[in-house]
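[READ THE FOLD]
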Amino acid sequence: MTFRYLLLSLLLLLQSLSLAYASVREVPLDELQPTRSQRQSTLIILKVINEYHYKKHQLDDAMSKAVLDRYLEVLDPNKSFFTQSDFDRFAVVSDRLDDDLKEARLDSAFNIFRVYRQRVDERIETALNLLKVDYDFTINESYRFNREKSPWAASKPELDELWRKKVKSDILSLKLKDKPLDEIRTTLAKRYSGIQRRTRQMDSDDVFQIFINSYTLSLEPHTSYMSPRVSENFDISMRLSLEGIGAVLKNENEYTVVQRTVVGGPAGLSGQVNPGDRITAVGQDADGEMEDVVGWRLQDVVDLIRGAKGTTVRLQLLPEDEGSAGRSKLVTLVRNEIKLEDQAAKKYIIEGLGGMGSTRIGVIDIPAFYRDFRGFSKGDKDFTSTTRDVRQLLSELEADGVDGVVIDLRQNGGGSLVEATELTGLFIPSGPVVQVKNASGNLDVERDPDPAQVYGGPLAVLVDRHSASASEIFAGAIQDYHRGIIIGEPTFGKGTVQTLVDLGRFVRYGEKNLGRLRLTMAQFFRINGGSTQFKGVVPDIIYPSAVQADDQGERSLDNALPWAQIRAVDYQPQGLGPLEHYQQKHLMRIKEDPGFTYLLQVEQLLKEVREQDSVSLLEKEREIEWDNREKRRKSEKNQFLVAIGLTPESDEEEEKRKRASPASDIDDPVQRIMLNEAAHILADYIGGQSRAAMVN
């Protein structure tokens, strides 16, 4: 099992935070009381964070208010249960939660949760009654579905009106999908009752986990607590084979959202599951009943999707570009085991593009920084390794007579630090690669362990907003050494290091099963002294699709650690030279390029969808909105395909083709847009260097 999957699995489990692993029985209100072990865990967590967390902070009144705000946000993210009077009642403790935490007093947090559970009961009873109403969809009114930045409802009647519109909107969404009214009411009754049932099943450990994570996430977004039950389930998931659909999920308001697909997994290979898609229903086998999962806890959805290799699961997806009230699609996947070799680096050659002449560009696609740690520890000389694979691919590309190489790190979420360091060493003679600073201020410098430079020719690195962690270390080092041209979008900006701390190790006697803390304990710094944190790696030549990059990655997370700088280490940059000329040629080339025109159209549609926070409850207007969005999406895609000489496909034809023969990125015309331009840029550079040599 790779380090990358370990990290992604941990993230998947922790994304649920407040909502995972509730008990299977309804918990009486009087049982929702803090326990002695939870108080002990609180004191240990504060001690560990105070001594070892990378960020030094003051647990004071300001932090106390932040903890309360985060706690209420996690419980009621869309402000659908509490009213302003509830908030005013809770605000009494806003300046004393810091003292409560220091003294391990948890009563205020539990009192708030008990009120929350009562409010959920009240709202669900209201919703179930509202399902009996016959609604008029010719009335021109709208429903604000995103209330994250809205004020709390001023009164119970105002909250009643909000829920009336919510129920009406939910009914209309299903009605527009040609569902009969009886089926709609049954589906929504199960959905609403499920929210109530799962809330009632949350026990004392769940409440504690929600609250203590409201504190840890007020520090920064990567420190979080796992209760004993969550820790146990995490260990079980790590021992199991990696079987499923290969998708990393997160919880976002009522939806389970695809965060990313894992290379080599059924979801990614299908070409039908994309980041940002929302899972609204899950069905087992080819004809099992579709289970509506809107409003479910993340882990419950994960449990439905997981299954044995070779079995079938069906997902009803609401694509990101459809908004919250758009048309969904049904995707059928066969669960499979995701093997290390499925994530292996692979090579291509790009040649014959207009304007490139006879220049041949080799491409090495690296989906993850993988390393078989078990094989390495056993002394296996042929253990699987990113660096080992890329070394071989470089040799093959040089034998093929390529003029330059593009390293494609798009969608690469990171992995092994050792591999990022050693891979950098293939392209430089020797020297430092990255600095790691811990909470005590101590610095470790990771260096290229091999003085041999395997490839010294023209080089470019293609990155996007999803390139993170180890990808950023590699791209940052190549940029600092002036060894290659960094092209694409600003990267994710994940420049911190986490470790798992077993809280039981701090207990000498008594209960030792206290759960674990995922702790941010160090930060990466480039050899030039700048951090990869927050800003990420900013390319030398930035694609226009980066216009929304500020809304992505670490920059979009609450309380993310800021960019920082330390002293640079000694290193010897190489002679890449000025790049302004190649930047201008790039801008001229893409000005009328149908590919980049299409990418910008896609970004604009997503921007409009993300910024939309309300929908019409007028049936005809909602239908028109659906149709116009679908016509626009198809028209823009078809214009692009025709412009590059391809025949447009219907959605059904495209999905059938992808199911029959999953395409690699190199065969996907949309994925080729950025890659082809990177090849063009490197070819420009190679041509420029050749001419300079002739002049000299």
Remarks:
- The CA atoms of residues 18 and 57 lie 24 Å apart.
- The chain has three domains: 22-219, 235-337, 340-578.
- The longest strand covers residues 516-525.
- Residues 669-695 form the longest helix (27 residues).
